[in-house]
Structures are given as structure tokens and as C-alpha cells.
Design a protein that fits this description.
This protein has 122 residues and is of the alpha+beta class. It has a domain at 42-121: TolA/TonB C-terminal domain. It is built from 2 helices and 7 strands. The N and C termini lie far apart (102 Å).
């Protein structure tokens, strides 16, 4: 009978020790930080462009804009002009005011360069 109690006690202690060590390993490790999936720039608000003094009935301005990882448009350059300087200038100003969420790569915000087009019709 004493042998049975001894074996039972050893098994019970082993079970309790194993259970506690597993619980401590899970509780001591911090929960894994959920990594956000990679994604491109997400435009939240794209301001409209004021027409200005344009004599043409139609125009397209294409700008290259740098969308910084700090959620600011830092550089805007006209790539294709509409032929109307005031519209081009207004397009640059509008692009600088774009509100967006930065691109994400490997869970971190990154700077991205995108083309943005503005079109007018009179």
C-alpha cells in the first residue's frame, strides 16, 4: 500500500509540475503582436482642383507625388501638363493636401511614390 501511495504521489507531483511549467511558459511570453498585412497607400481624402483660368475645354494634369511614411505628401512634381498653368498649379496644391494612410511593408509604414491625375472639362 505504501508503494502505491508513493507512486501515486510522484505521478501527481510530476503532473502538477508539468502543468505549471506549461502555464508559466504561456503566461510569461508576451502575446504576439498582430502584424498588419502589406498594403499600398490608402487615399482617405483627395481634394478637388479649382479650374483656374483655362481657355481649353479639356485638360489633364499628371503629377508624381511622394507619400511619406509619416502620412504627409512631401514632394509633388508635374509630369504631364494640362496646358493650363493655373490648373497645373492648383493640381499640385491639391495633391499636397491629400489625406492618406501610408503604405505598409512588413508591418511598418513606408514611403511610396505614386502618379495622381487631375482632369477638367469646361
Amino acid at each position: 500500500m505504501k508503494l502505491f501511495v508513493l507512486i501515486y504521489t510522484v505521478l501527481l507531483c510530476t503532473f502538477i509540475f508539468a502543468s505549471n511549467s506549461r502555464g508559466q511558459a504561456n503566461s510569461s511570453s508576451e502575446p504576439a503582436k498582430k502584424q498588419e498585412k502589406d498594403r499600398s497607400v490608402k487615399i482617405i481624402n483627395r481634394p478637388r482642383v479649382q479650374l483656374g483660368k483655362c481657355s481649353e475645354a479639356y485638360g489633364l494634369t499628371r503629377v508624381k507625388a511622394t507619400f511619406d511614411k509619416s502620412a504627409k505628401v512631401t514632394i509633388v512634381v508635374v509630369i504631364i501638363s494640362s496646358g493650363c498653368a493655373s490648373f497645373d498649379n492648383n493640381a499640385v496644391d491639391a495633391a499636397k493636401r491629400i489625406k492618406f494612410k501610408p503604405a505598409i511593408k512588413k508591418g511598418e509604414p513606408v514611403t511610396a511614390v505614386l502618379m495622381v491625375e487631375y482632369i477638367y472639362r469646361t
